[in-house]
Specification:
Jelly Rolls, alpha+beta, twelve-stranded antiparallel β-sheet, 426 residues, 11 helices, seven-stranded antiparallel β-sheet, elongated, 19% helix
Length: 426
């Protein structure tokens, strides 16, 4: 039995709890024991003597602490012994990002400015009240989105002059190619909230092309020639951006589609009902739904996986060979470990509304540490989702190859899962 705190040493009635040894301590003890220098009881005595000789508890922190933050992310302050070095930040939270408040809702973002290693993707969380618009606009980046709550009507204009029009609700996705003008309008009694993901790490929601600004900063003479609107109408146009603004609820979807007539886009589908699809992978530990260009053809720039882990389950150890990973945590609590080159490793705890980041090709795993289902999004700047399973790789290694690298007996090695599972139960 190993004592782990000074109070355990000083109090003979204290019932000690056996805790795992660090790998370094275990290897060193095993080497000495193998040399006949000491056994397990001697190790315990030595550890006890070391603790008894201390004048204070080296884990104590008598100075100021942000206890709420420590409770939210204990692994950041007290990481597992396997963490090493500094692979860079892998965590941020939308709850730390300032909101831009508008009459019809709000928006805030987590981009490369907040999470510097994330060069590929950036995220925007937005709320629209009932009837309110995110003004007609377009971007230099492709836009992928998931509805979090409520309902909305989206429109997207194609270069061929046809417009796609659809209503979306919680769990639905949309995808707008870069340069395609589009709008979003909140519906129902309470409007909507959604997550937008852009395939530019330094994207800024404050730097988009807006209909209002295009018109306000074109001379009235040119605008009159272009539109045939009388000159006096120029002064009635919005003099500055609308961005997010209140408006009346639209006509029915059927009525607006009838208005478009032959100009309604019916071939390309810019929305996808993720909740309605069968899970791509389902086990006793949870499920995953993968959406990329193979089942959502217009989504050529961004791929995604929605993962649900039951309490205690893990997203198996894996990596992505083609691109980095940007995450959005929707519900529950979890812990992620990321291991990069040079033996750099970091473990962080995550909660709802947090953002995670995994460098391209870095090995990582996620565990549900809460009491409810953990739900999070994996996002990738690619047309096709790809991952490599550690278990599957080991299973494909011939026996001697595996034994040489792992230093384990083959009978132990083959006890691991022999195929990719994506999700493993507790």
């Amino acid at each position: 039995m190993i004592f782990t705190t000074e109070s355990e040493v000083k109090n003979p009635e204290f019932e000690p709890v056996q805790k795992p040894l660090s790998r370094r301590l275990f290897v060193g003890a095993a080497a000495l024991a193998g040399a006949g220098l000491f056994g397990a009881p001697v190790l315990a005595q030595t550890r006890t003597e070391q603790l008894a000789g201390r004048k204070g508890d080296n884990t104590s922190d008598p100075g100021p602490e942000n206890k709420s933050l420590l409770e939210q992310n204990p692994s950041a302050n007290n990481p597992p012994f396997t963490d090493h070095g500094n692979p860079g930040p892998i965590w941020y939270s939308f709850d730390l990002a300032p909101k831009r408040m508008q009459g019809g809702g709000w928006t805030h973002q987590v981009t490369q400015r907040e999470l510097p290693p994330s060069h590929d993707l950036a995220g925007v969380n937005m709320r629209l009240t009932s009837g309110s618009f995110r003004e007609l606009h377009w971007h230099t980046a492709n836009e992928w989105a998931i509805m979090l709550t409520g309902k909305a009507r989206i429109s997207v204009m194609q270069p061929n002059g046809k417009m796609f029009l659809e209503d979306v609700e919680a769990g639905d996705l949309w995808y707008f190619p870069a340069g395609y003008p589009h709008s979003i309008q909140g519906l129902g009694q309470d409007g909507c909230e959604f997550l937008l993901v852009f395939d530019e790490g330094n994207f800024s929601e404050d730097d988009t092309f807006l209909l209002s600004e295009l018109l306000a900063h074109t001379s009235p003479e040119i605008l009159q020639k272009n539109t045939s609107w009388p000159r006096a109408q120029f002064d009635k146009l919005p003099p500055t951006e609308l961005y997010i603004f209140e408006a009346s609820l639209p006509d029915s979807l059927e009525a607006e589609k009838r208005f478009l007539g032959e100009n309604l886009e019916t071939e390309n589908k810019y929305t996808f009902k993720m909740n309605a699809m069968q899970p791509t992978m389902k086990t006793a530990g949870g499920e995953a739904r993968i959406v990329d260009s193979t089942n959502f053809p217009v989504s050529k720039g961004i791929a995604a996986a929605m993962v649900t882990l039951k309490p205690g389950a893990i997203r198996e150890m894996h990596w992505h060979p083609n691109v980095s990973e940007w995450q959005y945590w929707i519900r529950g609590k979890g812990r992620m470990t990321v291991v990069t080159t040079g033996a750099k490793a970091r473990t962080m705890d995550f909660n709802a509304n947090d953002v995670g980041y995994v460098p391209s090709m870095a090995g990582h795993t996620i565990e549900n540490t809460g009491t409810e289902d953990l739900v999070f999004l994996e996002m990738f700047k690619t047309a096709r989702y790809q991952d490599v399973s550690l278990n599957q790789w080991i299973a494909r290694m011939p026996n001697k190859m595996a034994e040489a690298h792992l230093k384990l007996d083959r009978s132990i090695i083959r006890q691991a899962p022999q195929d990719k599972n994506v999700i493993l139960p507790r």
